[in-house]
């Protein structure tokens, strides 16, 4: 990307705190989430070639605007963008952007950009589904907004998430699948075998938002189901969210001796815990707007066998019983059977770990976060051709869906 001094790029995020992530990395060299260091370094590089990159995070604990270094600014809104759109748009206007990247599906932000002649793209990590009337109306409003010529492109994390945009009516010529670059890969870890320790000493790890729609309740109730059969593996819950509510729920279910609620950890600690664990669990309910969670990539990276729900964004990604085990969302009994099977079947366990590298490789995509922004800002004939070449309409790397006939009996409802 050539130097574009008059470009002021605002990257609008729903949650997180860019200033906090920047300071943590500068002071300790650590990152809370895998993508923080990459995003920060990419933003610094982009900021050297334009007037300023501004990371505007809505749901911060305070309102602030701070220049982190030349060309890179962090803004905290301390607001809910869906409940306080006028306040958000006022703060957004104060940044005087020429270009706007919207990281979540806020229609008001796209309309504001159009009204103020600000160039805008969507760069999501969400799925878009729902069959109810309210969901259909919401998705129609969103797709109509995104299809407007004022929105140059709409990227989404992973192919399935991109297809969900297409399914709600967004033009596939505008939709681009994207991913992060990964420095740590499955080649850095040896495949695992099921340890000889008793099943009661086995360890399950969950990493993500500690909320009900991520299926954390289902994981707890699966432990209750197993406990009735005398099987008591341990569960470590890592992440932020409704911690007080879940502490009470763990106590109510009598799982204090089995469940550890640790809150947030740095990314290197998360990888260590996932490698240490016997199972990584991703029990997301369909209601949660998953793209393709990084927890899945990371579990495959460290070669720890995965149990996942049948969330629409996970379907067709894996050969079940070879790459992962899968259970129907909310089906506590099926989840319990998956856990018991994986912790008692050494051959199956080794198979999942051995095949994790191939499963990880199939998820990789060529377009990265910084490339999308670079090419879009450049806005040359070559960059426009590059973006269109990687659109959902044109991309040649779309993966074939794996046959649902490969579902194993242990993965279905009883």
Automatic annotation (TrEMBL):
Record protein name field: Glycosyltransferase family 4 protein
Matching Pfam families: Glycos_transf_1
Every Glycosyl transferase family domain range: 200-354
Top-rank lineage group of the source organism: Bacteria
Coiled-coil positions: none
